[in-house]
Amino acid sequence: MSLLQTTLITKAGYDSGFENHQELPSSGVVLSSARHSSRVQVASDEGVYRIQLLQAPANLPAELAREFGNPAVDNSFVCSSEQLYPFLQRTAALSRALPNQAVTDYQQSIANELEHLPDHLHDTEVERVVRQRIGQDRYRNALLDYWGGACSVTGIVLPELLRSSHAKPWADCANDAERLDVFNGFLLCAHLDALFDRFMISFNDNGKILLSDQLCKDSLATIGITEALHLRWLDAKHLPYLEWHRKQFEESNAALSELEQ
């Protein structure tokens, strides 16, 4: 590859979330980052880029395939010059979001913060609040990365309106891996989050919205909530958490129906 091609790849990597690079004169540039574990090798041939995932979360190729087509057997993708930046940006974002990078970041942040916490506050409510605050921040960042900063249902991209919604709530999770699992919930607009959090809406295994019988359909329609809504996509790893949430949704719906009788 030419010096110009190498420079363009290095800059694209740096701008997209790969701040480290290693030049391989005969086979391209290897890009990596201290913020996630993925490593990619990028080579250029007459304006077409071949990007191979050298190290990445197990489900990263399938996630990238939604937008960039299925990879080759060696986990490589072919991109045009226009796709290079979007591909690298999406790769870095997903690498930060997919398990278990969020857990690693959380544990490191907890260790750093607890190091400055007075001894008498350890194992108290103060430490619990610290852990939950940091965890919620890491979880929100992971969902923003995974969903590309857009609502999982509507596609709205205003961060001020978006909430990180757990399917299985923080307090009910068995461990930090569940609490911070990007598949344990969705990035939702505030009004959808409020209903999802109270088990007044849920989603079936195809991503179609489910509405509680207690909700007024006409009122919901005025804020854009109808039975036509569905998740933009749904991974198989979402399904166990959705099943848990749907059970609470069904039980809540049944309990409210009994009260009305």
What order do the SSEs take from the amino end to the carboxyl end, as H and E?
A: HEEEEHEHHHEHEHEEHH
Tally of domains:
2
Structural class: alpha+beta
Mean pLDDT over all positions: 92
- Total number of β-strand segments? 9
Could you name the ranges where pLDDT drops below 50 across 5 or more consecutive residues?
Answer: none
Query: Main sheet: which strands, in order across?
Result: 1-2-3-4-5
Question: What layout of secondary structure does this protein have?
Answer:
Elements: H1 3-16, E1 20-24, E2 28-32, E3 39-45, E4 48-55, H2 60-68, E5 76-79, H3 81-97, H4 101-115, H5 125-146, E6 162-166, H6 176-179, E7 185-189, H7 190-197, E8 201-203, E9 209-211, H8 217-222, H9 239-260
Antiparallel strand pairs: 1-2, 2-3, 3-4, 4-5, 6-7, 8-9
Helix pairs in contact: 1-3, 2-3, 3-5, 4-5
Q: What does this protein structure show overall?
A:
This protein is α+β, with helices and mostly antiparallel strands and 261 residues long. The chain has 2 domains: 3-97; 147-260, no CATH class. It has 9 helices and 9 strands. The chain has helices at residues 3-16, 60-68, 81-97, 101-115, 125-146, 176-179, 190-197, 217-222, 239-260; strands at 20-24, 28-32, 39-45, 48-55, 76-79, 162-166, 185-189, 201-203, 209-211. The strands form 3 sheets. Strands 1-2-3-4-5 form a 5-stranded antiparallel sheet. A hairpin with a 2-residue loop joins strand 3 (39-45) and strand 4. It is globular, with a radius of gyration of 21 Å. The mean pLDDT is 92.
